[in-house]
Amino acid sequence: MSERRTRYPGPIAQAGTIPHSLIEQGFAEDEALAGVLDRYPAELFDINLYDYDEEGQVSLRTGARGRLNGAELLEAIKQGRLWVNLRGVETGWPELWAAAMAEFRKVETAYPGLKAVKNAGQLILSSPKARVPYHFDAAGVVLFHLRGRKRIYVYPGDEAHLPERAMEQVVSRQTTEELPYTLAFESDAQVMDLEPGQALTWPLYAPHRVENLDRFCVSLSMDFQTWPSRFRNGALYTNAVMRSRGGAPRQTDSMGQAELALRWAASLGLKRAGALKSKIAHYERQFEPEVGATDGAGALNN
Ligand SMILES: [Fe+2]
């Protein structure tokens, strides 16, 4: 298949997997995971609990790190319905990061023209029934799957599934809302079941969602910027500022590289000047992980 599933240029035309060797290196075992949970800085944890209505619309509760030790927290995730994200793997688990960057070089080789200028990683530990809602990342992503099985739904990167106005809002941090989603999108998804030892990547910005397939899952999600993605993110930010001031900017998918670069340059000054204040709400923590509690979510102990 060589069908292009996105309106944006880039070397990745559609979702695909390549093998990786992070499991053989021991990064997916309980002992290693419990150890990293024990020593990981509390401020780098995101602990989420997602619920969905019949229309597939999501609501989110957020948890505090709490006081479980690493082994207990691991158990709470295995028993519960939690999605636990450890940000900043670059510094939080440098051994895993070094191994993952070596694997990333193979991804770059597999997609000629792919050249990252900045990479960052999140280690995701999630419960057997956890599901991540429809969203896009303003970056390229390689999802190194380490344990369990998950089903990834990747949608076309066209205006219907990925409206630029919504992208502007996300890139300029004007909303925590995910992209607009309807069940009608489901027939447009490229659906892939991810097994341990596979790394999945997809076209830059492609919307996606994830369902765990009844197993405790561990993945390293690596995001990366390329010069083209930086330019486009900057252009989306500049467009957001123009729109907030009553302008009607052209969509970035109609712009060439030179215009994107100019708008990126403009975004640097606008950001420095604080042109748009982040409107991302500060979530009040609603629970902390607890072994044996419903969904693994116990009462907060302040
Ligand atoms: Fe994502």
Automatic annotation (TrEMBL):
| Top-rank taxon, per record | Bacteria
- Extract the SMART domains matched here: JmjC
Gene3D superfamilies the UniProt entry points to: Cupin (2.60.120.650)
What Pfam families does the record point to? Answer: Cupin_8
**What sequence ranges are listed for the domain JmjC?**
96-241
Concerning InterPro entries, the annotation shows: Cupin_8, JmjC_dom
Q: What is this protein called?
A: JmjC domain-containing protein
User: Which organism is the protein's source?
Assistant: Brevundimonas faecalis
